[in-house]
Structure formats: structure tokens, C-alpha cells
Amino acid sequence: MSAKRGPSRPIIDESECKGCGRCVAACPKQVLRLSGRTNRRGYNAVEYVGEGCTGCFACFYNCPEPYALQVDDGRE
Fold first, then answer.
1. What are the chain's domains?
2. How many CB atoms lie within 10 A of CB 2?
3. How far apart are CA 10 and CA 73, in angstroms?
4. Mean pLDDT score of the chain
5. What pLDDT is recorded for position 75?
6. How many CB atoms lie within 10 A of CB 5?
7. Among 2, 5, 23, 26, which residue carries the largest CB count within 10 Å?
């Protein structure tokens, strides 16, 4: 029996994101954007637009910050 799948989504730790935009450029569905808000370190962090993530992990593999971005692929 396979695990139940929900929607995929990126999980961004705004306090770790340096706003380089590499994940935004790498996303084939263009569901990430710079937030316009400054985080506690003074960077303009990335945010998820809320829908459309396919769980391809392109954002994760392009992010240079080890703890800034994860992808929830929807599995339990």
C-alpha cells in the first residue's frame, strides 16, 4: 500500500533565507517569489505563492543555504 499523498509545497525558513533568488529562477512552475519583506538579517526572503508546487525539488537543489528551504512532497 502506498502512502497517501497531499499537495507538495516548499517550506522556507525566512530567517535563514538570504534572498539570492536561485530557487525562484530554478522553479519550473514559477511558484516562488521574493516576498518584499525584510527578515531579521536584513534580507528580502523568498515566499511560496500558495499553490502549484509539483515537488520536483529544483528549488531545494539550487538553494545555497543548508537550512533555508525544504520541500514537503505530500507523503505521510
1. 9-66 (3.30.70.3270)
2. 5
3. 8
4. 92
5. 78
6. 11
7. 23
